[in-house]
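hey so u asked for the seq, here:
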Amino acid sequence: MNQLRIFKRDTAGVAAIEAALILPAFIGLLVFGLEFMAFAFSTRQLDHAVVSAVQEIRLHESSRIARAKNWTAEEYYRETICSKVFSKNCIELINVDIKQYDDDANFENSTNDQFISETKLIHLNVELPFNASVIMKNYIGSPIIMKSGMVVLTEPI
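ran it, structure tokens below
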């Protein structure tokens, strides 16, 4: 009984026990916070790249450049967006979907840049896997996909 009282009053090692209990949770929150910041930064980059690509559609720059390089619209926007996004293997992983609609909002199945010479409603949709995901991928089991999209109304030249 006397040794129990001595053990109860002894405070040596209390800080080590507290650190052992709190430190894993603190490190987990720190790593998750850093990963979330990287995801938010990458998503913002993708949105900015899509806005830039849409601006090129509106200014009719994309059709001129794509024709000069013999690219389709998807190839051009894939190259343009990946040049502005810091992502490994962006060209292979990115999914660019361009849909155009006529005046009656009917879907037209043309993917070349010829449609930019007249007034059209164009929907540019981009998907790119988030490569830096370590914790989220382990918990979810599949890669996280960053998505960005924009609709633009083009004017004739």
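The mean pLDDT is 77. The two ends are 95 Å apart (CA to CA).
lmk if thats what u needed
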